[in-house]
Design brief:
By secondary structure, the protein is an alpha+beta fold. It is built from 17 helices and 4 strands. It starts with 16 loop residues before the first helix and ends in a 5-residue tail after the last helix. It binds zinc ion. Zinc ion binds next to loops.
Length: 462
């Protein structure tokens, strides 16, 4: 994921009124020159930012976003840009486009961008006719723009200085910040959903639900997983947002995510008619999403090691809970912990996903680089995880001795071959065996999803 931290970018000092007026004059001259030179309608893009501080990192990012939207919209409409000029500095950001199209048509596209979302409210996209006159929103039948603070016509409020500049600036920055945070949360949550879809689609998976069958399960099939994943999609955004909003020590973040976690479990059970498809993964991916949000929201480094380190701090209290006697009926994880000392999803997260970091992710990256499909690479990664991980789901269903025997068989096979086709055959053969022994390595499947998730966000050296 491209990481660019606003805090690290230089903060410009506020421009004086004289500088702002001078810059305005220069921009008007620039517009006149472009109109004279190219004889085409002109798009003039600036940001609506009150006060003297026009250039700051969030504003620069907002300007880049606007530029991208304008370029894309013109491209979509098949409108060539004869020339683009930019003027960026302490007095703010401005972009000028001489375009090959009727001015009214361009103004309609510009208005659509201005109205496309919260950030659009901060865009000022003027369109000048060939003769230099400006097309107003009224000219194309649109209502005038409204004030960010009170919703009355914006021009009225700015002319009468109806609101203190600081209030308008604060509101403006809030719009920018929350918009970029939402984009970020959306990107991370999308990777979580994509990882869950990849995991369930990988086939064949011994004992697990895949595209060919239900493994050792009788109460769920691949459609149960689709139902659950669709219901969980918005929940992952919430975990990221919890992390983004959180200030304090990461180990206290788990407590503030707890309610979001319960809501996610409710959403899953409602969608599946009471079947537990993803409880462990809600925890693992939830912690990862919260960790990503925490680092991003607190301006900390966002490399993968930092994310895994944050996970271990966030999940640490959950590991402590396993050591206390559980109230009520024990979960798979609690049963496995009390019987075999396995710490499951909670333990993996609290240790910073060591099996993913040292085994699964390097293997997935190298197999993908060698040209294997996500499916075949996923099968190989899963087999390696089964051979190494103490899977609480599998143990709670089949008992420790059976699971150990199966593990050593998988280890032996993996030491004999790494041929992708043979691994697929091995997985298919194991599926029969796992079904007869009632083994479902759900914990390893969860780690496979975590591996996919990290590979999407951190593709590694190319
Ligand atoms: Zn107002």
């Amino acid at each position: 994921m491209a990481v660019r931290r606003e805090e690290e970018m230089p903060e410009e000092s506020p421009a004086t009124l004289k500088e702002i007026l001078y810059a305005r004059e220069l921009r008007t001259n620039c517009q006149r020159r472009l109109l004279a030179e190219f004889g085409r309608p002109l798009v003039s893009f600036t940001l609506n930012i009150a006060g003297g501080r026009k250039a700051f990192p969030l504003a620069e990012r907002t300007f880049r976003e606007g530029k991208w939207l304008i370029a894309r919209e013109l491209e979509r409409a098949g409108i060539p840009v004869a020339v683009y000029r930019e003027d960026c500095g302490r007095t703010g950001y401005a972009g000028f486009y001489a375009v090959d199209a009727g001015a009214e048509r361009v103004k309609r596209l510009a208005a659509a961008i201005e109205e496309s979302g919260p950030l659009g409210r901060l865009f000022d996209i003027d369109v000048l006719r060939r003769d230099g006159t400006k097309i107003s929103r009224e000219d194309i039948g649109l209502p005038e723009r409204t004030c960010l603070i009170c919703g009355k016509p914006a021009l009225l409020c700015s002319r009468s200085a109806a609101h203190p500049v600081e209030e308008v600036v604060r509101k403006t920055q809030e719009i920018m910040r929350s918009c970029f945070q939402e984009q970020y949360a959306g990107r991370v949550a999308q990777s979580a959903v994509r990882a869950m879809l990849y995991e369930v689609a990988v086939t064949p998976k011994p004992g697990l639900v895949d595209r060919e069958g239900n493994g050792a399960h009788r109460d769920m099939d691949i459609f149960t997983f689709f139902d659950s994943i669709s219901a969980l999609a918005p929940c992952f955004r919430r975990f990221v947002q919890e992390g983004l909003d959180f200030r304090g020590e990461p180990r206290k973040l788990l407590a503030s995510c707890r309610y979001s976690g319960l809501l996610a479990e409710d959403a899953m059970f409602r969608a599946t008619g009471g079947v537990n498809t993803h409880k462990g993964l809600i925890f693992s991916l939830g912690v990862l999403c919260a960790a990503m949000g925490y680092l991003h929201g607190n301006g900390l480094p966002e490399d993968m090691d930092a994310v895994l380190e944050a996970c271990s701090e966030i999940a640490a209290p959950a590991r402590g809970e396993l050591e206390k006697a559980p109230k009520g009926p024990p979960t798979h994880g609690e049963k496995a912990y009390s019987e075999c000392g396995f710490s499951g999803a909670r333990g993996e997260a609290a240790k910073g996903f060591p099996h993913v970091k040292s085994i699964a992710l390097p293997l997935l990256r190298s197999l993908r680089k060698a040209g294997l499909s996500p499916n075949d690479a996923g099968v190989a990664v899963l087999l390696h995880l089964i051979s190494r991980v103490d899977d609480t789901n599998a143990v709670s269903r089949s008992g420790l001795a059976t699971y150990r025997a199966v593990q050593s068989e998988v280890q032996k096979c993996l030491s004999e071959t790494s041929e992708p086709k043979e691994l697929l055959n091995l997985a298919r053969g194991l599926n029969e065996k796992f079904i007869s022994l009632n083994i479902s390595p759900g914990g390893c499947a969860d780690l496979l999803a975590v591996t996919f998730f990290l590979s999407f966000l951190f593709p590694g050296p190319q």
